[in-house]
Amino acid sequence: MALKRYTYSDRLQKLPPYLFVRLEELTAKKRAEGLDIIDFGIGDPDLPTPEPIVEALREAVSVNDYQKYSSSAGERDLRVAVAEWYGKRFGLDIDPDTQVCVTIGSKEGIFNIAQAFVNPGELIIAPSPGYPVYSGAGTLFNEARCVKIPLREEKDWLLDVDECPTDARMLYINYPNNPTGATCDLAYLKRVHDWCEDTDTILCYDNAYSEMCYDGYLGPSVLEAGPNAIEFGSFSKTFNMTGYRLGYAVGNPDLVAGLKKCKGQTDSGAPIFTQKAGIAALRMYDGRRLPDAVSRNMAVYAERRKVLVEGLRELGFNVKMPRGTFYVWFNCGMSSERFTEKMLDLGIVVTPGTGFGESAEGYIRMTVTEPVERIREALDRIKRGHV
Ligand SMILES: Cc1ncc(COP(=O)(O)O)c(C=O)c1O
What we know:
Layout: H1 10-14, H2 19-32, E1 38-39, H3 51-61, H4 76-90, E2 100-103, H5 106-117, E3 123-128, H6 137-140, E4 145-150, E5 170-174, H7 186-199, E6 202-206, E7 230-234, E8 247-251, H8 253-266, H9 272-282, H10 292-314, E9 327-331, H11 336-345, E10 348-349, E11 351-352, E12 363-367, H12 372-385
Parallel strand pairs: 1-10, 3-4, 3-5, 5-6, 6-7
Antiparallel strand pairs: 2-8, 7-8, 9-12, 11-12
Helix pairs in contact: 3-9, 4-9, 5-8, 10-12
This protein binds pyridoxal-5'-phosphate.
Pyridoxal-5'-phosphate (PLP) is lined by residues 43, 105-107, 131, 174, 178, 206, 208, 234, 236, 242, 247.
């Protein structure tokens, strides 16, 4: 029998292909042609999850009660651990019952918060370049309209609220920033928080990289700036737990309640056993400082970042040493797509800046998820390839 064809909904048709799916296809093609690929593409840590977290998962997965449905708000003991962590890390007093919701990775929360609060036709402000979910599914699946506000190198990639419309429903921002590696201070967050209060705009702060920082810097929480925001945190990058799909949303009780209500209809929460692993992760902190397991990881990324940045500088590129994230971001001196293709021909996967927004034309993102020898090999290939 012939297979029937089905057309996507209008909203799905409007959604551009997810950047990394396309990159993966191109990379697979090059691999099949026999090229040895050095991959600086997707932001997926190559280092393992710290052992105490894996151990907690192993133990939890064999407990019968932990094999059952969780609740869409998340297990109370993880919500308590998140609230305690906010106390240790930021000195904030957070109520685990009304101000915390566990998410299935922060991506899910970032998408669902728009489902919960944005009506068709309303405006969502997203930075450009920016994490694609803000302007993609977050906007399009709600029939909302996205205003993309360009981030600029001369403004240190900080979104300027004076350039934003004052009649939007929601604003997404993210520092330490993907893809630019830019960081911000609390004074900046205070300005954004107050602007959002004044303009009645819901402030969604994506803090997935708060712990991925260097040189003594640590990312602030937007909730240090004020209570009227929702912040998304993630276990993915801090603890090398991307595959666990675990994150949290913390903030204003109404915003958290809306997210919980939305999740109640669409999922039944993250698996309980991964949530137990999340508790073990957060309990590694005994104060503001990064625990040893996390700082050991960050030392590895710091060295790779240094080798890559210095190597690119020697090749003539103007590259800033990032204070946060594991991304290196620079102007490649030609179109992002052309540079990406040239690199692929050399067996090097990079991400074109334009995948994060048109205003990043000419920029490239490289993730330091390859060991130092492979970074040196890539630099050597670029040198020999005269890119
Ligand atoms: C800025 C930003 N936010 C959120 C996420 C999603 O992280 P997760 O869903 O794994 O918590 C990512 C992942 O790359 C990201 O770069």
